[in-house]
Design brief:
about 475 residues, alpha/beta, Rossmann fold, 3 domains, five-stranded mixed beta sheet, five-stranded parallel beta sheet, 20 helices, binds 5-phosphoarabinonic acid
Length: about 475
């Protein structure tokens, strides 16, 4: 029988809706919003960006556009491996950072029980799940207090195969596994890396690790729909085929040439025009805890892709928009004050959910206190929705541009749509800015300086450069 998510009618019912009314001058005022004339004036640029993305898709570093279509074989393999992991292991630990960690964290939070690791094994129906994306020694040690390495599968994810953070974690873990398990240690590691480049692939071959490949044309921050994200998701029982179907569905919507009808292109156009008028901060504010780490994933995608000093032709541009994460309603009680009354330098994007997966009725009580009692009989669903609408109203009334993406539900299909939507918006926006969306010289500079400081061969010149930097003065430290 055809899976429900393959039916056109169901897919249509799960379509994300992009509401940009409050980005428009009609709603937030002339000086702050985008006028129809602004859109008309740049329509050639939007058309050119669309054409470039169409022309480049599937080639160079745009291999990610094809991930919804070209992974049948690897997905089948991942599903077999995932079943084995669920059967044999108590914990599944991702070792990775940046694009090799943020997607798995976001998807896990969105699609599994919110307190998954605290559930009993029978309720969880899968291994406990951890993503180690830092090299804080206290955090690393603390992991060993909650897992038994003998019953844990480690997924080492690094495209370059040389990232210091991930490789240092790998060294610690593999050493520990060898001490505990001898020859069987290698069975506890799955490597996800580049097929042809880097050290992890060499190690994987030498040690005999099960390996999944990150395609050449898929950069870290665009890799969530590759084995980088698919294996961790499948390991905890997420329907990865449905996620890919959601991405394919969004891809179709993003192939529409008319920018007003293409959600990612329209969103990119609004982002581009906002940046042009000095709105250099982009706040992502989901009104759902399930989507809270989507903001972290988005922050990396937006910041690393668009934060560039030069255009493709070498002109200085210092492009980009600083992404900020917020959570509705939590941050109404912290950041929203600034969003409403602070500088006019932000665009806020709300993520709204039409139907939460559960309902929570607010109990009766406080009959003598009308100021509390008015809540009784309502649901938390109504409350969170009212608070989102209230914040939207408050910002709009204060001439603060904002937009909302509505997810009919949070499920693998809509998460696939959301991921792909943002990847496409980033691609379109990068073209509008005329920059290289897919490199990250700023990140590489930090990686190289770390190698130099820790004595990696070949990086001596960077160490010398670093030593030539002015010595810090005591007088500026108090
Ligand atoms: O988007 C990117 O390319 C980076 O943020 C990487 O994901 C990050 O630096 C980790 O790199 P790697 O996967 O090579 O370990």
């Amino acid at each position: 029988m055809k899976a429900k998510y393959l039916h056109a009618k169901w897919q249509k019912s799960m379509r994300l809706r992009f509401d940009y009314n409050n980005m428009m001058a009609e709603f937030v005022g002339e000086g702050q919003g985008i006028a129809q004339a602004d859109l008309r004036a740049e329509k050639e640029r939007f058309a050119a960006a669309f054409a470039k993305v169409q022309q480049k898709r599937g080639t160079g570093m745009m291999g990610w556009t094809e991930l919804p279509y070209n992974q049948a074989e690897v997905v089948a393999d991942i599903l077999v491996t995932a079943r084995e992991i669920r059967r044999k292991y108590d914990a599944f630990v991702v070792l990775g950072i940046g694009g090799s960690a943020l997607g798995p964290i976001a998807v896990m939070q969105a699609l599994k029980h919110m307190r998954y690791n605290d559930l009993s094994k029978t309720k969880r129906k899968g291994p406990r799940f951890y993503v180690e994306d830092n090299v804080d020694p206290e955090r690393m040690r603390s992991l060993f207090d909650v897992i038994d390495v003998k019953k844990t599968m480690f997924n080492v994810i690094t495209k370059s195969g040389s990232t210091s953070e991930t490789m240092s974690q790998y060294l610690i873990i593999y050493d520990m596994l060898k001490k505990e398990l001898g020859k069987d240690a290698a069975k506890h590691i799955i490597a996800t890396t580049s097929e042809k480049k880097g050290n992890l692939i060499k190690l994987a071959k030498q040690e005999g690790f099960k390996t999944y490949y990150i395609p050449d044309g898929v950069g870290g921050r665009f890799s969530e729909l590759s084995p980088v994200g698919l294996l961790p998701a499948a390991a905890v029982g997420i329907d990865i085929r449905q996620m890919l179907a959601g991405a394919a569905f969004m891809d179709k919507l993003c192939k529409e040439e008319r920018f007003r009808k293409n959600p990612a292109l329209m969103s990119a156009a609004l982002s581009y025009l906002s940046m042009k008028r000095g709105k250099n901060i982009s706040v992502m504010m989901p009104y759902a805890d399930s989507l809270r780490y989507m903001s972290d994933w988005y922050c990396q995608l937006w910041a690393e892709s668009l934060g560039k000093a030069e255009t493709l032709s070498g002109e200085s541009v210092y492009a980009g928009q600083t992404p900020v994460k917020a959570l509705g309603v939590t941050d109404q009680h912290s950041q929203v004050q600034l969003y409403r009354e602070g500088p006019f330098d932000k665009v806020v994007t709300f993520l709204a959910v039409d139907r939460y997966r559960t309902e929570c009725v607010i109990s009766d009580g406080c009959e003598d206190i009308p100021d509390v009692n008015f809540l009784c009989g309502h649901t938390m669903n109504e409350l969170i929705d009212a608070e989102r609408k209230a914040t939207e109203y408050a910002l709009t009334a204060a001439h603060r541009p904002n937009r909302t993406i509505y997810l009919p539900e949070v499920n693998p299909f809509t998460i696939g749509e959301l991921l792909y939507f943002y990847e496409m918006e980033t691609a379109f926006c990068g073209e509008m800015l005329g920059i290289d969306t897919y490199n990250q010289p700023g990140v590489e500079a930090g990686k190289n300086a770390t190698y130099a400081l820790l004595g990696r061969k070949g990086y001596e010149h960077i160490r010398e450069e670093m030593q030539a930097v002015k010595t810090k003065k005591e007088e500026y430290i108090c």
